What does this fold into?
Amino acid sequence: MNFQWYPGHMTKAKRQMQEDIKLIDLVIELVDARIPLSSRNPDIDELGKNKYRLILMNKADLADPKATEEWSAFFRGKGYYVVSLDARRKVGMKSITDKIMEACREKIERDRKRGIKNRPVRAMVVGIPNVGKSTFINSYAGKACAKTGNKPGVTKGKQWIRLSKEVELLDTPGILWPKFEDQAVGLRLALIGSIKDEILNIDELAIELIRFLKMSYAGILAERYAVDESRELPDILCEIAENRKCISKGGELDYSKAAALLIDEFRSGRLGRITLESVKNDKQ
It folds into this structure.
């Protein structure tokens, strides 16, 4: 499969972010804890150079805890401030203001020496589509400030949100980058739902997920779907269709329905806590 999705509004959003970066002190980058590297837009590093940086590893409740610890250590080693969180359930949110203040300590001290008091830290919230930016902002603010949805492309324009005397956030639309140099990155983005399902082959996506789970999380498919993991990949999908009664109107096995079921159960965490890339194999 060839993965690519870069609708026109992303070009416009990127241009707007390049303008707005002059107004802010800190870049808060949300990544998906299941694919911490693949869910980082390489354009953000260029955009945010000379700015303080905080990485929020969101959806940590769906990711392998050991892998999350390893990725957190990896990013800290690169000089980023890092927090793991589950924005939906507000887990990990309490430490964020402290981390923002810590990251911007030099700026706050500089303001104090100049006699500037109570000027809030201005932070831009960035990330790829469907990584949970709006959910994070609403959880952090304690009220619905930003539109949310479980599909990419919900946030269309920028909006400033005053959280307190200390922090102002600028929400931005999720943007990908024009070309995935590594199609494995595109595959991972497709698996977590950052590329629109409508342009994907879900059957092939499910086969790739089965391939990964057999190799990295042996036993999960057997336990969840009572399948024989030693069989060929398409045969495993057939078994899932059979065991989960995925039947078409004509009484035939519905492989597409089984594929969609598998992808949905992975995305929702019903397969368990799974991380699709490891520091050891995928770090750059």
